[in-house]
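cron nightly-structures :: item 1 of 1
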Amino acid sequence: MNVMPGHHVKDAAEGLVYLTVRQLHARTSVAIGTLQRWAKTGLIPAYQPAGKNGKYLFPPDALERQIVASGEPAPAKPSGRQPKWRAVADEKGI
């Protein structure tokens, strides 16, 4: 299924609009690989109308649904060791 940039996939039977992984990436700034991994593991809702090896389609509110379902807000800062530049940026409030 080819989707032109800026166009949405619409399921005529249900009247729902779905976004491609690139469109969801553009809306949320979450990396494409991360969105695909989350979809594959079931962390966010996604559909594969062409079957197991097909492209993922996402409801426009896929990430919001996950945040509400988990009941937890997204972490403010990444955990683990941080690069030196991040500590400097945090001190300056950047």
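cron nightly-structures :: done
The radius of gyration is 17 Å.
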